[in-house]
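Re: duplicated header lines in exported structure tokens

Our pipeline writes sequence and tokens for each protein into one text file. With two proteins the header for the second block appears twice in some exports. Here is an export where it did not happen, for reference. First protein block:
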Amino acid sequence: MDIAKRGKGNPMRASATAKEGSNALGRGGNISPTEQALFDDAARFFPGGALGGNALAADARFVFDRGDGSRFWDASGNEYIDYVLCSGAMFLGHAHPAIQKAVADQVSRGTHAFAYLNETAIRLARRVMPHIRCAERIRFTTAGSDSTFHAIRLARAFTGREKILKFEGAYHGVHDYAQLSTAPKVSGNFPHGVPDTAGIPAGVQDLMLVAPFNDPETLASILAEHHQDIAAIIIEPIQRILHPKPGFLQAVRELTAKYGIVMILDEVVTGFRYGIGGAQGYFDVVPDLATYGKIIGGGLPVGAVAGRKDIMDQADPTNKGKPGYVYQNGTLQGHMLGCAASLATMDVLEQPGVYDNVFAMADKLREGLQKVFDRHNLGILVFGEGPMWHMLFTDKVPQDWREVIATDTKRMATFEAELLRQGLFILPNNRRFISIRHTQDDLEQTFEAADRAARIFKR
């Protein structure tokens, strides 16, 4: 297949700027003057020349220009197959026509109306709540971090307790309460956490407890000692690259119910990815609160907190000034463009066969990559379940964070950089995603690119 003829926009842009004899995918050393100027400006404008907390190696970085489906092009015209997908937000792929139309139609009617009622937000609530098993009430936010922050506040107010328990290696956003033991390089002693960033007050650290994922016995021991102080347990049903052991999520549910602790299921990643009912349907677990972001926004900044009405109704604004009222607000909550994109996303995901197809494609991806790596005797294990996939230098699927960091992560980082140079965009040292628009052609070219990367890596 001629890669230059794929997609919309300017179909000849990639081939027009690619080097003579270079691979169809990847940078191949090609950086245009336009992209270099953008790099130079970014270095002057942004800390570390980056928009956020992630940066790529200097010889593998790029400036995103446009995307279509499962692929995107950088400012030099180089083409990539995307397995990052905006950290999983682009489950429908880039520039999905249904989302384009929905957003364009909404723009003509208005973009936002502050955090007051608007028709689009109400329609979205009506649409998503039947799919969220715990949802008796819902409140829209602007991102997953926003959602987890507000869920924690609601839980503290509801229980009258202050401490929160999370699991080592879990990511729940960027706020202070989340940035404890998210990716510790040095393990702490449970239940004490390790700050992931400077600037977190010691008092916040004292309010957070940490337990090992997939270890219900240790969790039960911690709760037996500290339950009277714990307002909530917040848990990712699939913690980055760690899948729960059978019964683990149910054990967390039972323990939280036993001690009157609020269970917050962080579905920012899993929500609407593992079926229309997310992890609650996939794993058959019903929390007290659930948090959302990524897919629910259709690529625009929409998140949500959903859950029991007795907890959620603490945020009823008619109760301002009364004991027990919980303030929850944001200028861009219920943003009409985002809600329009969300409704279009639901239109697509509710179509028959969507999830069967993406699950099958992900299985083929994992199987094909494993064959490539085994052929080169790299010692890499490809694993995962559903529309996420992972790989490590290991011979067994890890069960907790400490088993992840016990693998050769530095060597993996080197290999991942080569994969990127070959045109496969993956999130370094983290989960990878697949969209509903990845095709068999994408997979075949992925295997070819992985083979090239493996040959270079072995030199």
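Second protein block, exported in the same file:
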Amino acid sequence: MTDTPSVAPAEQEKQRAASAALHWVQSGMLLGLGSGSTAAYFIAHLGAAVRAGRFQVQAVATSLVSEALARQAGIPLVEPRRGMRLDLTVDGADELDAQLQLIKGGGGALLREKVLATAANSLLILADSTKQVRQLGQFPLPLEVVPFAVPWVLDAVTSLGGHPVVRPDRTQPAQPARTDQGNLLVDCHFGLLPDPAALARELEQIPGLVEHGLFLGLAHAALIGQGEQVLLYRRGQEPQLVELPARP
């Protein structure tokens, strides 16, 4: 994928970050493939490199959509198994702050995304510059919820100040959106989060709430497209300029 003048600036930034992420891939790796538009760019770049013989890798995907993209791209997929550790998971984010705390789940794949983030030796986040925030919370916090428990989860989140809304299906708005596991998605409007860790602990106590979209202490690094450049962010370090692959 190459940038064109007709592509929106944020999409160009995503493409550049996804292309730069190939620097982190080595032959023999077992990779976690994220979900969402930025991860899709990475899957396309990785697939092209695999087909060209540059890498020999295997992967596990965080969603059925990403699985399909990986198969189309020619990336070999494997099933999860006991004892499996991923060398690297590459994923996007809906928000990230300077400490690489994240909100994820806008695409509805937060459960599998957190599973693969936790199962990886390293989590690399790809994002465009609009995803950077000083404080998490402008983006609604997604929850994955067992359908039976939804009324009680809504009550519990309301008591925490979350203003929860069951997410509608994009193609059939009269129906609720469902995850790959068949659960429902609830978007919570807390506003800015002064203490994401404290909120995460509160949410984890709610029965029927399968997973929340706060990813804290999981990301090891982030590649963020900023205009014509890509910067590498690590916790507690100054950002570094990343050399982009030469265009063909």
